[in-house]
Amino acid sequence: MGSGFEHDCAEDCHPLTAEPEVQRCIHRLYTPGGFPTDLPNLGDPDQRTEAAREWDMVDPGSLRFHEHGTTSFILAGHTSLRHGRRTSFALKCIVYPYLRIPTIARATVRYQRTFGAETGELRHLVRVWASSDSWILMDLIDGVPLDVHVERRLEEDGGTGLRLDVLEELGEQLFAALTELEGRGLHHGDLSTSNVLVQHHGEKAVFRLIDLGSNYLHTQAIPGRAGPGARYVAPELRAGRADAHRADLYSLGQLLVTFAGVPNSSDGTTPDDFYSEAPLLARFIEDLIDHDPARRLLVFEPKAGRPLYAQLRSFFVGELTAVRTIRKESLVSSHAPWYVHVRELFRPLSGAPAEQRRLWQHRREGRHLRWLRWWATISGYAFFVAASLIVMWWMRDLGWNWATKAIEAVQKTAGSNKDSIPFLDDIRAADYKIPDAWGSLPARLVCLSFIFAGSKYYQNLFAGLTPLITGIVDRQLRRQALAAEWALRSMTLVPAVLTLAPTLIQRTWWPICTALGITATFICNLLVSRFAASALRRAISAGLTTVPRDPSDLARPGVAGVTALRGWAGTAAFYGVSCWTIGLLIYTGKLQDELVYAIAVSAINLVLFYVFRCGVNASYMRAGLVRACLAAERLAKLERWPAPAPRQRSATPAATPVPS
After folding, report:
1. pLDDT tens, 282-294?
2. Residue 421 to residues 240, 346, 424, 506: CA-CA distances in angstroms?
3. Do residues 468 and 368 touch, judged by C-beta distance below 8 A?
4. Element (DSSP H or E) covering residue 370
5. Maximum distance among all alpha carbons in the chain?
6. In this structure, are residues 432 and 426 in contact, taking their beta carbons and an 8 Å threshold?
7. Pairing relation of β-strands 64-68 and 72-78?
8. Is the pLDDT of residue 215 over 80?
9. Which of these, 300, 637, 643, lies nearest to 472 by C-alpha position?
10. d(CA 613, CA 54)
């Protein structure tokens, strides 16, 4: 009946355990002291007597197969009739040869003493009746395994992408269970989806924790396959170092990832979906799942002397509330991916200024949040001013009605005619004629496409992050962070300046401004990717396991977004050389195909940059940059405290200056 055999339980296990002779045989073999082993009697005499008394109450004819464990099988049954009542139970029977292993036998016989005291008063634990060296007798829970419940919930409501609604619902239950467990001075040690049952009380689901204590297959103390739950087990337990207190933190983080409905990464790091869609939660989960137990809770440091999981629940709820605020109260997206991409075509600012404003209004602490909010707002205003003027000048070229009441009032105040705009027309070059629809067409096409692509570039990639996330201690990395910060913030105004100059002053400047814009993009890509790559490399060198590694070279980071951004820098360099060459030829009059070149540049701006690079592909690019910023934050913690101790130092995490 071991879990390593391939068989059909409905055809084999259930009919087999329903046979009366098999039931009597199981009852006889598992009688305390009745199994033919060469182990000495374990447990004290009183405990053996109590186990024998509980065993005598088992009705052998009621035994039926319930489910498999990793080193056991579980039967359901009921007690003999006493005082007109029968009580249902679950019987966990250790299978041969595991029951001959002293480590397992000792853990089994001590189970009731370790985890059974006062468990009848707990809502999230299963009451243990008794335990012997080969079995554990406990309440029968009418529930489903957590993995089945998670799968059902993820299929409900038609939600897509990162299911933060399910994460909130199930995360609250998990924190409640761990808080109650901690209140009794207990730790789980083997927290996984297979060791949590979900019991329904009306419409509300309650988590019930089972199989507390180390799983010796996971710790490799005994040979055998560890099973699918091994990915939730902390690395130190798998290496045989028992530290259930901090091991439960790792399992908690991995379970939260599962609740969100995204595939677990093969290396145990936080999946990219969190970094691109909910980096506030990525930061929280990342702080739970470092392979080094001493490096967990570096950022979210709870107060010493207070219940740990109650504080972690407060952090978790706070981050979810911030995400809800950014998303306008909704934690679930019912839109298909294609709809999201199409919607983004009509959002040149990607909603970033509004998101940064809502996040700042929600938290109102931390200079970084204020800093990000103002730059997102500046970029937004620069876009609207530049785009409005370009469209207005184009309407003037076409002879359409372009004047607004405000402009008419300015014209009357300045005493100018109705075909001119005071001050703005005064700075226009003498040979720059308006209206001139055909002559101005190349400049209008390129400028309008560039302001859209440039604004999308900043708002969708950089608006919500800063390399200066914690005040980095490492001088070289800090210099790189300052350079990256300068480069990416400059992109709030560069598109507006380079499009307004040919629009307002001299339209023949557009080929030079195009080349300058590509050069600025190249510098930004280069400096930001350089900082990101350095931060990730240093984090790996420092031993932080929250950074994915390149499978071909574990000393290098394996973050696709950062690698792609470095590729963008190379592409921008090649494109920049082409733009400078062709642009100078057009500007000096040596090349006459001005409109053809303008159409090509506009198509590249709108299709390659606006739609694909800064739209469809922005999420994984943003995820890579967020990973780098969070790696720099954790690295700064290690630099300040080279040997993080288990004790806690502060009450609340710093304000979160990462993408929304």
Report:
1. 999 999 999 999 8
2. 78, 30, 6, 16
3. yes
4. helix 367-398
5. 110
6. no
7. antiparallel
8. no
9. 637
10. 67
